[in-house]
Write a structure and sequence with these properties.
The chain has a domain of 266 residues. 67% of the residues lie in helices and 4% in strands. It has 14 helices and 3 strands. The chain has a 3-stranded antiparallel sheet. A hairpin with a 2-residue loop joins strand 2 and strand 3. The radius of gyration is 21 Å and the shape is globular. The two termini are 24 Å apart. About 3% of the residues have low confidence.
Length: 384
């Protein structure tokens, strides 16, 4: 029996004969999402206003774009939240192939949009879409479907454990070509986490981890800019105006905020010191303006989101729903941990957003879909 099954057994309802009926979705998870998004909008405007005015003549440029993505994300959230679990199950393989198609298209010259040497985006009208973000949904649906259908085989290394790793490995390979090592790492971690929850043997997971070490070494140390990131991570002050500049400015922002911050809108690091303070380093900007208390408040909200998601997963009696909810929690949790690690200098720079808070349309839309999935699972829990 898998770990997730063992935990769920403690929350079984005694009346197994009562038919499952869709009910009102979890309101706590929705409220947490809206609170985090509201904080994000405020910080995006504060952190990007000066830069946006200089570049585009409109201080609210990035805020307006994020609001449009939020509207799209809310539509996705509501649609997914009202979708039947069987429909989501049937979408698993089509979503996986659609995501892989996007990852292939983005690598084709003339189709994929290149920004700062990375080809990660597709242009759709006036918008740019990041297929690797949408791929997270495809991977999540696929893994949940696989574990629910063939989870009993996971203890068999070749017939049960390796097939999903081969599929996800191909996806990770395409993402690394872009290159986007941060997203590839998160997808890999979520995959291993779900396999462990599904009952995979710890020894098998350790074998994969050890086998990945030399590959990771080659990916990092044989690529100049990644090797430089490691050197800057180990000693950012060795190149304070170059590769170590962003981390140093992030730490200065967090330190200058003190306990309660310098005041909303009063931060100085966004005045062309901290690069792109509205995206991956938005928590640094928030730490400067709202201080340690504001930073902890946001992290507590994210922690509450993950904890509530785990509760929804453990209350689900359908294996597919359970793994779906666990996967959303893993994605949000790993994203948050890595983002916090980067801005504090505990991890090398990765380029991962803070869920619901950072600027980024594709990322926000996928996070909203994640909330929709949790609500969909909560709607189909058995009645108490």
């Amino acid at each position: 029996m898998s770990w997730a099954d063992q935990q769920a057994m403690t929350l079984r309802w005694p009346d197994a004969g009562v038919a499952e009926r869709p009910r009102r979705g979890d309101q706590t998870i929705l409220l947490l999402t809206l609170l985090l998004v509201a904080i994000g909008l405020g910080m995006i405007y504060s952190a990007s206003g000066v830069m946006a005015h200089k570049r585009f003549g409109d201080a609210a440029y990035f805020l307006k774009r994020q609001v449009l993505w939020l509207a799209f994300g809310l539509v996705c959230l509501l649609a997914v939240a009202r979708t039947d679990l069987n429909t989501l199950r049937r979408l698993a393989v089509p979503m996986l192939f659609l995501g892989m198609l996007g990852l292939v298209l983005v690598l084709i010259p003339g189709i994929g949009v290149t920004v700062k040497g990375a080809r990660r985006w597709l242009r759709v009208g006036m918008w740019t879409v990041q297929p690797s973000e949408l791929m997270k949904v495809g991977v999540l649906l696929y893994l949940a479907h696989y574990l629910a259908k063939k989870g009993s085989r996971l203890t068999d290394f070749w017939r049960g454990f390796m097939p999903p790793l081969v599929v996800v490995g191909a996806i990770v390979g395409l993402i690394l070509i872009e290159p986007d090592m941060g997203t590839a790492a998160v997808i890999g971690l979520v995959t291993l986490g779900l396999l462990f929850a599904g009952g995979a043997r710890l020894g098998h997971l350790m074998v994969i981890g050890l086998a990945a070490l030399p590959v990771l070494y080659l990916l990092v140390m044989r690529v100049a800019y990644r090797r430089q990131r490691i050197m800057s991570f180990l000693d950012p002050w060795s190149d304070p105006t170059g590769s170590g500049f962003q981390v140093i400015q992030s730490q200065l922002a967090l330190g200058s905020g003190g306990l309660s911050g310098v005041g909303l809108g009063e931060g100085r690091q966004k005045l062309f010191y901290l690069p792109e303070p509205h995206t991956d380093f938005v928590l640094s900007a928030l730490g400067e303006e709202a201080g340690f208390l504001g930073t902890i408040a946001v992290l507590l909200l994210l922690g509450w989101f993950v904890a509530r998601g785990f509760a929804i997963a453990l209350e689900a009696d359908d294996p597919f729903a359970r793994y779906l909810a666990l996967g959303v929690c893993f994605f949000v949790g790993f994203h948050t941990l890595i983002n916090v690690g980067v801005i504090t200098g505990l991890l090398p720079t990765k380029g991962l957003t803070l869920p619901f808070v950072s600027y980024g349309g594709s990322s926000l839309a996928v996070n909203m879909i994640g909330t929709g999935l949790l609500i969909a699972v909560s709607r189909h829990r058995p009645p108490i």
